Amino acid sequence: MPSAEHHIRRFGIWAGLATGPVAAFLQQQGGSALVPWTCAQSSGWPAVALGLALATTATAVAGWVSWRARRPRDGRAVSPDLGNRRFVGGLSTGIAAFFILVILAQALAAVFLTGCER
């Protein structure tokens, strides 16, 4: 029976690649759902808080997991798929970093645009 560490090592390299786009989608949908409330309150800070929460808790953690999963553990033999693991882990970390910027840019827009502009 494979251990939990085995599953984290095996699927952890894909964490940033999967979580980044999903977090950006959730931030976009959540920000859109908050427009009537932010327009009535004349404050975009809930959308900013949503963006910061998704960028730090979801995407940054997933990127960190991907970065950690790309390296072999100390004391273990080098596996034949190490090049693939490093490539996918690095790509996944880069995608997570890109989507952190996307989420923060969307959150920053909520500071300047209240949703009442028509």
Task: Give an overview in words.
The chain has 118 residues and is mostly helical. Helix content is 76%, strand content 0%. The protein contains five helices and no strands. The chain has helices spanning 4-11, 15-33, 35-41, 45-69, 82-112. The mean pLDDT is 82.
Present the secondary structure layout.
Blueprint: H1 4-11, H2 15-33, H3 35-41, H4 45-69, H5 82-112
Helix pairs in contact: 2-4, 2-5, 4-5
Q: Whole-number average pLDDT?
A: 82
Portion of residues in beta strands equals under 5%
Taking the sheet with the most strands, its summary is: none
Measure the end-to-end span. 58 Å
Helix content: over 70%
Question: Which characteristics define this entry?
Answer:
single chain; mainly alpha; 76% helix
What would you say about this model in short?
76% of the residues lie in helices and 0% in strands.
